[in-house]
Amino acid sequence: MNRILIVKVTSLGDIVHGQPVVSDLHRAFPGIKVDWAADAAFADILRWNPGIDRVLCAPLRKFKKQRSVDSLKAIAASIGELRQEKYDAVLDLHGVYKSAIIAFLARSRRRYGYTKADLGETGAAFAYNKRFAPKGDLNVWDGLRNTVSQIFGYSIDDAPRFGLSIPTPAVMPEAAKHAPFALLFHATSSDEKKWPVGHWHSIGRSLTNLGITPLLPWGSESEHKDAIAIAAGIPGAIVLPRLSVEAVAQHIDMAALIVGTDTGFVHLASALQKPTVMIFTATSRQHFGIDVPGLSTSVGDEGRPASIDEVRAAIDAVLDRPKDTKQNGTFDSQTPDPTRSA
Questions:
Q1: N or C end of the chain, less CB within 10 A?
Q2: Which intervals of the chain are annotated as region Disordered (predicted)?
Q3: Helices 12-28 and 264-271: crossing angle, nearest 10°?
Q4: How far separated are the first and last CA of the chain, in Å rounded?
Q5: In this structure, what are the phi and psi dihedrals at residue 231, rounded to the nearest 5 degrees?
């Protein structure tokens, strides 16, 4: 196989999960060219992977919101770029209408997509002439790796390689002055995935006692308000300005620690092999959790939000600190913490 197109349009975390497939394909088929089609909002992640030859992107989300002529022109141009190459195979790992249309427009005789029962939108089935079922009972990236390896007949016998290299910022961010710092990713896609503000206060104060400055990123006005509320309870905490995807990734690359809910940037942090703690409240830890021994770990689970003590212990583990932190003075045991029993 000489050239393959992978279609995974959104979102940030899902695209990060798929990156080990690129490395697997290169090992299975030396010299292969791997192209990837995605929404323009997440194209940066793909450009950070040197194993991807062409990043094909269009402002699909932007057009859906704004219906602008410029976005429509950009989509038309992306279709022309898509059809410049002929593929030995097109692999749709998304399974919805927009990904199916991309797969259908690509020049290939083999278009792989999920079986109808496993599609995100059943109408997407029109685009495929070869079907596959996802590998179940595995976390999301292992599931993808195993699924693709079975499709193309190669074996997997090593740990996932994400292959991402974050570009160095042209100007050093202001946050660098506050190193060592931790990024607290409090924002979520739904309220049920949030962790209580008081819990963040407790963890943030623990970090300041370690000499680590808590930094709070955000991406919307409601997230900005939450960041301000969390920072208000943590002496020395800093609410960051609104950052691009690339700028957030650069902050992750410089951070001493990342703590956050089950969101794309926290998955990116683990993929970059940063000390990372992922907090679960409403999604499945088994399927979406991170676990790199000595580097990243997950706490809590679907329907059982992580406790403050669990997060503290996880931070100690990824920072390689003594477990009995209260006795050695790592955490502040002098001031009563009203959130501690939550």
A1: C
A2: 318-342
A3: 30
A4: 55
A5: -65, -30
- The distance of Cα 19 from the centroid of its chain, to the nearest Å, equals 10
Q: How confident is the chain (342 residues) per 10-residue block, as mean pLDDT?
A: 97 96 98 98 97 95 81 91 98 97 97 96 97 88 95 94 96 96 95 95 98 97 98 98 97 98 97 98 94 95 97 96 44 32 31
Q: How many CB atoms lie within 10 A of CB 123?
A: 11
Contacts by 300-307 with C-beta closer than 8 Å and gap 24+?
Answer: 304/280, 305/195, 305/279, 305/280, 305/281, 306/195, 306/279, 306/280, 306/281, 307/342
Nearest-angstrom CA–CA distance, 84 and 275: 41
- Residue 239 maps to which CATH number? 3.40.50.2000
Q: In the chain, what is the greatest distance between 2 CA atoms, to the nearest angstrom?
A: 68
Q: Cβ contacts of residue 241 below 8 Å, gap of 6+? A: none
Closest of 176, 199, 145 to residue 6, by C-alpha = 145
DSSP secondary structure letters along 20-42 = HHHHHHHHHSTT-EEEEEEEGGG
Same domain for 225 and 181? Answer: yes
Q: Give the position of tokens 């992978």.
A: 6
The model's pTM is 0.91
- Enclosing domain of residue 237: 174-328
Total domain count, the chain: 2
Q: What share of the chain is helix, strand, coil (3-state, %, to 5)?
A: 45, 20, 40
Query: Is the same domain home to 18 and 117?
Result: yes
- Give φ, ψ of 149 to 5 degrees: -65, -35
pLDDT of the residue at 250: 98
How many whole angstroms separate alpha carbon 84 and alpha carbon 106?
9
Same domain for 317 and 184: yes
Return the pLDDT at 332. 35
The pLDDT assigned to 203 comes to 98
Q: Are 318 and 277 in contact (CB under 8 A)?
A: yes
Which amino acid is present at 268?
Answer: L
Residues 190 and 132 in one domain: no
